[in-house]
Amino acid sequence: MPGSLARLAVFLLLIVGVLTPAHAAKRVVLVIGNGSYEHATPLRNPENDAKAIAAKLAELGFDVVTGVDLTHRGFAETISQFRRKLDGADV
Question: What's the predicted TM-score (pTM) here?
Answer without folding.
Answer: 0.70
